[in-house]
Write a structure and sequence with these properties.
3 domains, Sedolisin_dom, serine-type endopeptidase activity, zymogen, Rossmann fold, 22% helix, hydrolase, 8-stranded mixed β-sheet, 553 residues
């Protein structure tokens, strides 16, 4: 008599291509990760027709198209393009069967939030986890590509199992508490020079450069410099438009700072215009070396005051992620899927494009939905140039998400504003550092500057064809690629705007977020660029009423 044992067929698994970070190399591995640590992560689902969604978003954003400006509501978008309820149900069932806890899912079914131990997550996704050193940080990453059972259909990415989100940076390090600018400084460009102003300690300075930096331009100075002061006074002030500002954490004094700044610089009150919220389904993470709530407060304050300066009649919605991890992406998805704003401005990003593909595609999906709904998304192009730091041995790269063709990437400039609030000069921003030694300046070394460059991830979008020169778009050889930035505005902290924050003084910081209104258009995807493009300033900066007339046609 013989006995036969039925063998269960092995489960076929599907690898999630590009789910391992490029920085997680064997040479950088330092050891195994803590297997007992809890990881919160999101499993993102494929939409039911991603190609169709992109085609529709392009059509509604292209002048001359039969669908031009025929935007969808969030409900219409979900019904046509979002992942299905059955996809979500199958995914949740599988996650629970693996011993993982299931949490929030947004209305557009874009992802399912889950959590569990590193060991449990590794077993579920068919991998192990180790610590790797990258950019001076110890980061966790999966050692191989993630995988899921093939019958759990439509999984496209998992975000949060590795520490790639720790690479998020906000633009230009904000001031520490009790920071006050050094004197002397000028109220406008050229007011104080080495010829007419002595230094506090009597040190004699070389004749070049001659002008002391501005103390920080006030809002109305910038309105004048960009030629929109009269338009704002005439009622073109953003009334009826809602601008969402997304950052991490929330400054406890943001509302009072915004009101005090407005009163000081001749701007209208923000009462009734300003609201704050936290996106649902996000979570608090303990403050550690990778979390910096204090540092983000200055960025938030700058962004809010910049928006109110350029669009004093607009509604401002601050949406704070409770951490600077993947909740930044979830917050953007929430604003888009609830259509909480007409414009979304973001002054943060990753230093380059060296991210797992799983981090890229889900945010592109949210950007495509925004375009289909008529929402404009702006990202600053960063403040580290092409991320080489002047080192020719380092591969140049633009920053993500600014490199996405579905957002408007905004570069930074250095701006000189005259006594009568007109623009004296505007140049692509690069800051060098020199030291005064024995009465002479040492040779300048690169410190920071406007982000830009050619993407390795995205092909050239239609709106850059015939505008961006081949020398830039084909810099890697082969087909033309997306080039950053699209446009530009004040970004140099040396010629920056005054920022009013609760401390002992007023800080002079960068002005990236001023682009939120000047580059606002009811064409959320395409910007009709003109010749004379470069990868520092794009096609240039706003030129007063002529710009407003062009973008409102």
């Amino acid at each position: 008599m013989s006995l036969s044992t039925a063998q269960a067929a092995p489960t076929t698994r599907t690898a999630l291509s590009g789910s391992k970070a490029s920085w997680a190399t064997q040479a950088h591995r330092t050891g195994a990760s803590d297997q007992s640590e809890t990881v919160n992560f999101r499993v993102y689902l494929q939409g039911r027709d991603d190609a169709g969604a992109q085609a529709y978003a392009t059509a509604v954003s292209t002048p001359g198209s039969a669908l031009y400006k025929h935007f969808l509501t969030p409900a219409q978008y979900r019904a046509k393009y979002a992942p299905t309820a059955s996809q979500v149900a199958a995914l949740k069932q599988w996650l629970r069967s693996q011993g993982l806890s299931v949490g929030y899912t947004p209305a557009n079914n874009r992802y399912v939030e889950a959590h569990g131990s590193v060991a449990t997550a590794g077993k579920a996704f068919g991998t192990t986890f180790s610590q790797y050193t990258y950019r001076g940080k110890s980061l966790r990453s999966n050692d191989s590509e993630l995988s899921v059972p093939s019958d759990v259909g439509g999984v496209q990415a998992v975000i949060g199992l590795d520490d790639s989100m720790a690479l998020v940076e906000h633009d230009v390090v904000p001031p520490a508490p009790v920071f006050v600018n050094a004197q002397p400084c000028s109220a406008y460009w050229g007011e104080k020079t080495v010829a007419n102003t002595a230094t506090p300690d009597g040190t004699k300075l070389p004749s070049t450069p001659s002008a002391f930096s501005p103390c920080g331009y006030a809002g109305t100075q910038l309105q004048g410099a960009y030629g929109v002061k009269q338009a704002i006074a005439s009622g073109n002030d953003g009334k009826g438009v809602t601008v969402a500002v997304i950052d991490a954490y929330a400054s406890p004094t943001a509302a009072q700072d915004l009101e005090a700044y407005s009163a000081k610089h001749g701007l209208p009150s923000t009462k009734g215009l300003f609201k704050e919220q936290v996106a649902p389904g996000t979570y608090n993470r303990a403050v550690n070396s990778k979390q910096d709530p204090q540092g983000w407060a200055g960025e938030e304050t700058l962004d809010l005051e910049a928006v109110h300066t350029t669009a004093p009649g607009a509604n401002i919605l601050y949406v704070g992620a409770p951490n600077n991890y993947r909740d930044m992406d979830a917050t953007l998805n929430h604003v888009v899927d609830s259509h909480s704003a007409d414009i979304i401005t973001n002054s943060y990003g990753y230093g380059g494009e060296a991210l797992p593909q799983g981090y890229i595609k889900p945010q592109v999906d949210a950007q495509v939905q925004a375009a289909a709904e008529g929402i404009s998304i702006f990202f600053s192009s960063g403040d580290s140039g092409d991320e080489t730091g002047g080192d020719s041995s380092v591969a140049p790269t633009p920053d993500w998400p600014a490199s996405s063709p579905w957002v408007t990437a905004v570069g930074g400039t250095s701006l000189g504003v005259t006594k009568d609030d007109s623009r004296q000069f505007e140049l692509g921003w690069e800051t060098g550092r020199s030291t005064l030694v024995n009465g002479a300046w040492s040779p300048a070394t690169y410190q920071y500057g406007s982000g830009g460059g050619t993407s390795r991830l995205f092909a050239q979008p239609a709106y850059q064809k015939g505008v961006v020169p081949d020398a830039l778009s084909k810099t890697y050889g082969g087909a033309a690629q997306r080039v950053v930035p699209d446009v530009s505005a004040l970004g140099d902290p040396t010629t920056g705007t005054a920022v009013g924050q609760t401390q002992t003084g007023v800080d002079d910081a960068d002005g990236y977020s001023y682009t939120a209104r000047w580059f606002d258009d009811d064409e959320p995807l395409t910007i009709h660029v003109r010749p004379a493009y470069d990868d520092v300033t794009g096609v240039g900066s706003p030129d007063g009423q002529a710009w407003l007339d062009a973008v409102t046609k």
